[in-house]
Design brief:
The longest helix has 11 residues, at 43-53. 64% of the residues lie in helices and 0% in strands. The chain contains five helices and no strands. It is mainly alpha-helical. The protein has one domain (3-64): lambda repressor-like DNA-binding domains (434 Repressor (Amino-terminal Domain)), CATH 1.10.260.40. The radius of gyration is 11 Å and the shape is globular. The relative contact order is 0.24.
């Protein structure tokens, strides 16, 4: 997972992690754990984040499906 790119996408949208958590319907604590790689994103969460941030397919792949780590 490419954490810096995820954080950049959140910032480009003008969101914070707590704001994004609210938009996608999970707790901010849960989202922070996932961003810190303490747990994995579900397919449903990835889809919700992609929708909330208007991510392209290439952006989704580069953020969530890469070997790059934070």
């Amino acid at each position: 997972m490419n954490i810096p790119e995820l954080k950049a996408a959140i910032a480009r949208k003008g969101f914070t992690i707590p704001t994004l958590a609210n938009v996608i319907g999970i707790s901010k604590k849960t989202l922070y754990r996932k961003v810190d790689c303490e747990s994995s994103f579900t397919q449903k969460e990835i889809s919700a984040i992609a929708s909330a941030l208007n991510l392209t397919n290439d952006e989704i792949i580069s953020i969530f499906f890469t070997d790059k780590v934070a």
